Queue: 2 jobs
Job 1
Amino acid sequence: MSAKERETANVGAGLWKGTGMWAWMLFRISGLILVFYLFVHVWVISQGRLGGAGTMNSFFKFFDKPFLVFLDLMLVSAVLYHALNGVRIVLMDLGIGIRQHKLVFWVCMVIAALALSLFAAKASSYIL
Amino acid sequence: MAMRTEVLEGSRGGMWPWLGQRVTAVLVLVTITIHLVLTHYIAIGHLSYDNIGARLAGGAVVVNDVVLLVAVVFHGLNGLRMVVLDWGLAGSGGRRVFDLVLWLVGIAAVVYGIWALWAWVS
Amino acid sequence: MPEAKFHIKRYDATRDAKGADRYDDFVVPYETSLTVLEGLFHIQEHLDGALSFRYCCRASICGSCAMYINGRYRLACQTNLAHVHADVITVEPMPHLPLVKDLVCDMSDFFAKYEYIKPWLIRETPAPEREILQTPADRKKLDMPIDCILCGACYSSCPSVWTEDNYIGPAALLKAFRFEVDSRDEARKVRMPSWDNERGAYRCHTITNCVEACPKELNPTEGIQWLKMAAVRRRLFGKAK
Amino acid sequence: MPHHQLIVVGGGLAGLRAAVEARADGIDVAILSQVHPGRSHSGAAQGGINAALANHPEGHDDTPEKHAFDTVKGSDYLADQDAAIQMTSDAPGVIFEMDHWGCPFSRFDDGRIAQRPFGGAGYPRTCYGADKTGHYLLHCLVERAYERQITMYVEVFVTSLITVDGACRGVVAYDMIRGGFEAFTADAVIMATGGAGRLYSNTTNAIISTGGGAAVAYHAGVPVKDMEFIQFHPTGLYTTNILMSEGARGEGGYLVNGEGERFMARYAPKAMELAPRDITSRSITTEILEGRGIGGKDFVHLDLRHLGAQKILERLPGIRDLAIHFEGVDPIEEPIPITPCQHYTMGGIDTDVDGRTVMPGFYAAGECACVSVHGANRLGGNSLLETIVFGRRSGAAAAAALLGKAGGGDVSAAGRQAVADEEATVAMLAARGADGEDPYAIRAEMTTTMKEHFGVFREDKLMREGLEKLIQLKERCARIGLRNAGGVFNVDLIRTTELEGMVDLSLTVAHGAIDRTESRGSHARTDFPTRDDERWLKHTMAHYPPGGGTRLDYKPVTLGTFEPQERKY
Ligand SMILES: Cc1cc2nc3c(=O)[nH]c(=O)nc-3n(C[C@H](O)[C@H](O)[C@H](O)COP(=O)(O)OP(=O)(O)OC[C@H]3O[C@@H](n4cnc5c(N)ncnc54)[C@H](O)[C@@H]3O)c2cc1C
Ligand code: HEM
Ligand code: SF4
Ligand code: F3S
Ligand code: FES
């Protein structure tokens, strides 16, 4: 018997209001973006070996536009979000803060925001 | 009541990938912080072939980046595997193949990555 | 007399196509207070006898009447109009479960999974003549999981269940925890395979919808996390509990 | 057509315990239940289960004999003494067994099962799991039933027995998930369908506690016993009648009237709030009738505040939740408005100590049965015990009778016939449809009649008026219309078809009560205020004569150990 054969109600409804639900969705998306980036990143770095200093530097030149710096920041925020939410999850795995997980989430997000603003300040000082 | 328990039997994996994900998560957390601070914070906008070489000359940074590479490849691909499993895309038939492909991709990525880094080290 | 407006999702396989969205509206008069379950009975008795829903204890202990009421998992019997801050009471069956009729979901998979984790005390040593001694501190560890009424709300709310039919789900895992943590249980090897796999505890991504959904305010996540750590303790350090 | 050696109807404590026992003896047993066994009404029991374990510091010299004495005295000497002794001597064993099976009883510091004082008991001997004892016991037995791989047909509603040559050979049931009637044949049947609280509009019982099983047996010719003895629990929530466990008073709760006085001092100066239920319910009702309810209204207060938050949270967390959710009152801060409510049917299918009835192959256990351990008034904590003790005994007796005996032959023809009969009945009801009598109107009138005319205090004239109404309702039952026939999960079908049985049981209560011209236990007559052992130390047996009506006769009470004396607390 497959559960999927019969009618089910309100598919898609559920607890979209729950912090945990959103946190998890964003976590998953950020993780997948990072996996994609990881491969791009390795490929970019390998240009150094493949094409030598010239190719590599032309890549960096290409990246040196404000928009791409902005993309870089987006990347950093994805890492920060994923990392700090990841910290929350590892803490929960260790049995820490399961009942206070929402609080822990927001504390982590504040830390992530602080770290991100450091990077952003640095990046803007560079662009401006 | 119709019982479906036989469908549940014989599932593999479990704790080790799960634990691996946590351990690599912690490793990545440490190494990526170093990596990010060095590249995206201190050196943002000043990246160049030589600049990278200068940092990597330290040796410790090479170790950091290699650990990061290994850990993040495992972590990322295992994460990908979890997502794919959740959406049921790797049903029992394709599972072995899927896992094998991930291992191959992972090993290839690590080897390729280290090979690429060696542009600066050597 | 004050009146309550009900907006109820209907489903009848002999009448509705799959995915059909049929809602019926009813007006229920009441005196001073009204629970959703009382409202459903009023409708069934006086307005539409064909309405189907589960009921039994009407005192929030049997777990029959879990439903999706104004966008929240609730026990119909425990939900008073005063708890629902809305002009219209929208009553729907629990999401993501196969339907039997109207507000009645098919719970057979839910119970099959419950059975799968061997939800009974397992002992190897012969039973003593009197009770098996258990300290109040050890007994306290059971306080949370034994209050589960198997209503299925957590199961219905868990995204890991939505995406994977074979995930055994928060309620069954909570039961596994309830026995693994019991000082009297000795099923170290027998029960563990049922939850220590990727369709068991590790399929839980600590999303915590189950905690939000549980009408008894239990915390399945806590139990599941305990299980994961118990597996690590057993494999890596050889500890039984 | 499914066939099993033994069919147990009802997945409450009694049914589960019977099935688990028979299964251990290697019998092919199936449970049929209207709700998943884990949802049975037993789960609502709160306070605890009695057994002379002598774990309590103040009860170390407690014995099963003393427990038996309390039970018999509590019953106002109407209990069969051999049955009471059987139950109390089995008690410690079955409790330890439940512990071995994992039931999470609360514990004393030394690790032993905790016990608390309960009404009418000379010693604190009520074992408990916080205030959710029934829930824990029930889930424990559900777990055991799964372990023993007992077949469970869940959400099937039994409507009649299949009898062949006077012996019970199975049941016919409406399968709610599949839709439609089905015969389940067997070599023996155990009925364990619980109480009939829903005969009353003010009851603590579950909505499915309609006495269905007892009515099915009664219609099939098995007599029901002592039906006039209806227990009223002193403390049901005022608006919803949901139970506030006796444990609340066991832990030290006070009953307080509108004048702020602990009025129990007037009625049971020694036992105070822990007097037996019949006495406490009457005391509260008297207070209310004499205008000393809270604000002159028809309720009094159960005050727990002096126990303190910690004790309430630890020992009575469920009570607190119920009071908050259903009455909007937090017992830590406010007293709880309560009123006496119908709570327990002492009477039921007449059985011996092994669950046997007059019909071969047909057994009964639990609240639907009357072994006669509760007599005219049940003590708190004794009925959970009854379900497990006599569930176990009937399971064992049925298994012993079945073991080594060849099956009773093929009865599928009788099964098919029984299903056809049932379908014909439903078709007839459905043909009347909305033109027939409204079953819900009849139900509402019946339950209020029972509440008003056969309540805590009874009196000849009042009861005769009530009987008159019931007889009229019974006539209207013959014209009931069913507005929704067939289909899956047809609530209308269930609630309509069970109605006639409910009215018939109400009639047994009414007749038994009118004829019994004495006051005994829960049966309190203002016109006959004293007990009359001379004429009434006997069980009322109600028979359902073919063609309708109610025929009463009487059966002696088994005495022999404890001499009847006046009940004082
Ligand atoms: C609120 C409350 C609190 C209580 N607290 C205590 C206490 O603290 N201590 C104590 O000793 N006693 C207590 N009691 C009494 C005790 O709980 C019951 O007497 C006992 O649980 C009855 O158990 P049972 O197995 O006979 O029936 P139930 O548990 O009522 O089970 C009946 C079963 O029969 C099934 N059934 C019914 N009709 C049909 C049908 N037609 N077809 C198929 N299946 C059917 C139902 O699905 C159910 O599974 C309490 C009772 C109430 C109402
Ligand atoms: C920076 C530190 C990081 C931490 C602390 C961390 C932590 C975690 C944890 C704990 C999980 C497991 C979640 C679960 O089991 O449900 C996880 C999943 C995942 N991680 Fe990371 N991670 C980090 C970095 C990364 C990086 C750099 C990548 C990209 C390569 C990545 C990709 C993923 C993916 C794809 C998943 C699966 C997502 C899911 O199942 O929802 N993570 N991470
Ligand atoms: S954990 Fe809560 S939501 Fe889940 S089945 Fe148990 S009581 Fe229901
Ligand atoms: S919602 Fe599901 S994923 Fe885990 S924490 Fe609860 S079981
Ligand atoms: S009817 Fe039992 S929980 Fe609502």
Job 2
Amino acid sequence: MKVLLFGIAKDIAGAPSITLDAAPEKVAVLREQLYQRYPRLRELRSCMIAVNKVYAADGDTLQPGDEIAVIPPVSGG
Amino acid sequence: MKVLLFGIAKDIAGAPSITLDAAPEKVAVLREQLYQRYPRLRELRSCMIAVNKVYAADGDTLQPGDEIAVIPPVSGG
Amino acid sequence: MDVLIDIKEEITVQEAVDFVTTPDCGGIAVFVGTVRNATKGKPVQRLFFECYTPMALLELEKIARHTLTEMGIRKIAILHVSGDKLPGETVVVIAAASPHRAAAFAACQYAIDTLKETVPIWKKEYFEDGEVWVAAHP
Amino acid sequence: MDVLIDIKEEITVQEAVDFVTTPDCGGIAVFVGTVRNATKGKPVQRLFFECYTPMALLELEKIARHTLTEMGIRKIAILHVSGDKLPGETVVVIAAASPHRAAAFAACQYAIDTLKETVPIWKKEYFEDGEVWVAAHP
């Protein structure tokens, strides 16, 4: 499963995207895997997960083909 | 005393300015003279008098050299 | 120079925005007024704006100064047209810059609301069957 | 077409205003965001905007549609830049047209407030002594 990273999350991961070996069943599990791999993500003011370009809740279910994105605090405008 | 007229007041008077023989002492007297000469001014939603480019109250005093203007309801913007 | 006031035949949004743009203000609110093509369902063919220009400039200046001294605005531009205008054409542009965007919006709204109440400018609407000075009668 | 959404390197106020200008709406409210030259007193040399463009366009579209269905807006344009920007340059333009100017102001403020909260765009500030992703940390 491919995960896109933006802004400071991209800097923390050192890459614009990473690949997970397997698709976690839920967003909460994915989030925990990301935090373990990149502990500095926990220090951010917020860290949202988007699934197929829509903000997801921790309880949402993931499918293998989903487009996942890590959304650190936005600062457009 | 010269009196400038704008918008519908100009149409009612049929001229962009008129001259009064003498300067009335107060704005209220000027207003009454204008109403008698042009009764249709009374039908307007409002009719302000400006003295030297500033809105005047009926009790304000007039000087012979003042620039008087009849201000019907404004509709800019 | 923190205030730009003008009354002329042609105005653009860009000149107002350019005037108020400063590197120390992140937010600019703008109001753009255009000629509507109908009034109460009746097609408007054109408009004519008459101005008591020297007094109108003074009243616009008062509005602008109030936004600087009381509303947190750093720079403001107020431009109004005179003469003939067609539906869709720009008749008024107000641009206000502030470090705080809520202040910029509030000042812009204050300026257009007050302009419509106090500034000696008159609009005549031309319809197919006649012409009317707007808001003159009750 | 009642909505214009775009993310690109250069945007202008005029293209947003031109898009929303319609002869049936008298009032257009606009917000223009520019690069500030300092953050908390520290000079900013330049900015960089990164976008998750496909999702950002969807979020901008949501904001625009809300102003049309819930806030009395007839046409709205939301333009945002990507890439490098210098102090004073335009980074966002929102223009909303409504028959009622209070609605146009409210929609414009709603759009910029919501954009800053929900749209996946990130701003990096470059100072003389380093760079910071804005608002990333508490």
